[in-house]
UniProtKB/TrEMBL annotation:
Top-level taxon of origin: Bacteria
Alphabetized PANTHER family for the sequence: CYCLIC DI-GMP PHOSPHODIESTERASE PA4108 (PTHR43155:SF2), CYCLIC DI-GMP PHOSPHODIESTERASE PA4108-RELATED (PTHR43155)
Protein name: HD-GYP domain-containing protein
Domain named HD-GYP: residues: 113-309
Matching Pfam families: HD_5
Coiled-coil blocks: none
InterPro entries assigned: HD/PDEase_dom (IPR003607), HD_GYP_dom (IPR037522)
SMART domains tied to this protein: HDc
Amino acid sequence: MRKVHISSARSGDVLGKPIWSANGTILLGVGVKLSDRYIELLKSYGIDYLYLEDQFTSDIIPENIIRDETRKKAVETVYKTMVDLTKAPQMKSKASNPMMGQTFDKIFSEIMIDIASRKDMLISLSNLHLKEGYLFHHSVNVAILAGILGVAKGYNRTRLMELGVGALLFDVGMTVFPDELWQKSTDFTNEQKERIKNHTEEGYNLLRKQFDISLVSAHCALQHHERFDGTGYPRGLKGKEIHEFAQIVAIADVFDALTSPRSYRHAYSQSEAIEFLYANGNQWFDIELIRIFCSHIALYPIASTVLLNTGQVGVVASINPLASNRPVIRIIQEPDGSAVRSAYEVDLSQQINLTIQKTL
């Protein structure tokens, strides 16, 4: 299969990966044949990329970083927790919700089991979801990314679980705001941005009341908008004053936000997001954490469609973990725009004259 922009999708194309709804259920499953109506609906839902079956790439299958069943359960749990808190404001005043920590500890344990079963630690988040579900899927993605960085840092199980629970719930403070702020179709106004800043302290105050959630996990909610140079909020902390867990969650938060489509901007490629992180090294984020994080990112994920400097179009067929920026590309279109009669592969690690110009 290959990943294509929705503008390239045509009636009759077949989905290679599912489209997820806000609450973690599958809206359109693998094997669904697209119609013009489906395509227009997906566009209106904020989907800008699709994985499609393709005659030249039928054997190229991007590996999910976690299983669909694990993602479904995790997103459902985040969704239910946040929606319940939104609909029942009185819960915020309770001293403790006795099941919250236990529930999220179990969810993150399952995420880590899936991550541990992978052959490599190269990150490629290939899930597609509706814009209304961004907050819930984003929380799960941040937890996955944070977990991988925690493993790379050599954290023991206790520290990994504290980090993971904090990452799953880092945006729980958003539940104090009405739905229209969660699901805005435009960027925030300056007034809304100032109001939204309160979500860090609201989230911290909610989590610190839970007897089975550690204070360290709660600080992921409080400090994930602090910045290494002291320009963040709510307290303007800098450098080592910011807990390392919160710094990890902040990096994961920004990376996933950049690589996710939003209704008011396109999704950035993983390579573009990495450039952004490095550009903010020791300004927004600790440069050493960025280096560790980015060493586990697949610059050009499997099934990505790319344009080479020769004018050829191809699909990433495989990645060399030792040179993830020089993958094997299956050529499907020649420089003159004609489709190949038979697809063939070029290994960029062996052909230094070939370079990827951009992801399509």
